[in-house]
Amino acid sequence: MPTVRFRAREFDCAHGAVLRDVLLAGDETPHNGASGSLNCRGLGSCGTCAVSVSGPVSDSTRRERLRLRVPPHDPASGLRLACQTRVLGDVTVEKHAGFWGQHVDDEDDGVDGDDDGE
Description:
Blueprint: E1 3-6, E2 9-12, H1 19-25, E3 50-54, H2 62-67, E4 80-81, E5 91-94
């Protein structure tokens, strides 16, 4: 039975379980802030459940690859959509800052720092 590690907690799950479902069942979320309410509910179309995952998981789905090509995501970031990722063994999951969870470097704190007056 695989174990998912997330925010200093551990959850056991069935082999092949959807990562988003595992986190939600454990009273955790793959979303930040308002994206917890404003998301596609696991359809793979919004991109707000993007996380870093290390460990054995399923290959990216076509839907996931297409969504991660659309800004603010970058396909080179290595992020996965929790709603499209199946757990195949013990994994460690990290959620990054920002509405989309796409901020993976230390220079960006997830706050809009534009000086465009908006």
